[in-house]
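Request from the bench team (R.T.):
"We need a structural guess for the complex before ordering more pyridoxal-5'-phosphate. Sequence and SMILES attached. Just send the tokens back."

Command: build protein-pyridoxal-5'-phosphate structure.
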Amino acid sequence: MHNMTEQVVKETEDAFLHVYNRFHVVFDHGEGVRLYDIDGKEYLDFGAGIAVMGLGYGHEKYTKALTDQTRKLLHTSNLFYTMPAHNAALKLKKVSGMDRVFFTNSGTEAIEGALKLAKKHANLAGKKDYNIVAMNKSFHGRSTGALAVTGDEHYREPFYPLLPNIRFIDYNDTQALIANVDDNTACVIMETVQGEGGIYPATPEFIETARRLCDEHDAFLILDEIQCGVGRTGKMFAFQSYGIKPDIITCAKALGCGVPVGAFLCTQRAATMVPGDHGTTYGGNPFACAAVDAVLDIFEEENIVEKAAEVAKYLWATLDKIKDDFDIVKEHRGMGLMQGLEFVPDVKSGDVVAKALARGLILIGAGSNTVRFLPPLVITEADVDAMDAILRKVLTEIK
Ligand SMILES: *Cc1c(COP(=O)(O)O)cnc(C)c1O
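Reply to R.T.: structure attached below.
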């Protein structure tokens, strides 16, 4: 029989720049928290397109807001105002407690904007050869600026030289923060919960120390909330669980729940840029902002964040039980619906992910030994049970 999937894989691979090793699955559509491939096989989605699809697939009100906006107005440029941009900006300010927002098309661009705010500040403050303190095992994106502060040598090295004077320290190493932040520091940049690096939440001590040192040395604290923000960790933004306020946050991923949109937000003090300093053609266009506007409305109307925090407890208990039942599971970490299982060194995350996929469960690896659970925020306890049943079969097969 003719195999459509393999043909699509081959033809796509012949056309694409080869920078991903993809699974041989061709998705066709989604419904709720499930995806269907072109052969009609069903998958339970605990990856949400890497923490993007917060509302799952085909949410009625969200889909209507998007289709309505496509008929009205897709794009105008940033030379004008639109109602969706107005609405999205005001709502995002309100839920974040920040003062100013700039919409981007991606997370990486949000990081670029955040770094530019910090660089401009350092120049205005007369910091000579300023440094940036960044984290080992961090991930901030693939542009050359974002890459320069990404704590993975393997990603950076092929593209040297990158930004100079980046001081990488271990995440949650408070002493290293104290030793590295000084009067020439422009900013400290970190994820509030590290995602790609293996699901590590910041300790309160680490975040509080970063805040204090940035204040003492007139540096900006940039919290990357691209993966952990927008409802994932039990609050709208993860930093809101720590009782501190950053100078700048970046978000993207679930901000558009499927429409590519990001943002960086800052306090008035950190709003160092003026006309001419920054811009974008697509960023904040009415279509992208209609998505943000709808997402924030739906989050409020349907108590998405509170419900996600509730089901997160159930997921926590479920994965804890798996950890107890399987010796190959070494550690269970996370916050809210951003959880990870770390396996013993000879069990590779790629193997767990591939075996789960074959059984119709989507998981995502993080580092070589950790598997991430980043389901849509709208999952139910029954979905967690369904995941549990499949994962147990997979781990039994491996151990
Ligand atoms: C995904 C991610 C990025 C990059 O976002 P893109 O939209 O892929 O450019 C940056 N930081 C973190 C923490 C991320 O998870």
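Two things stood out. The chain has 13 helices and 17 strands. The first helix runs from residue 4 to 15.
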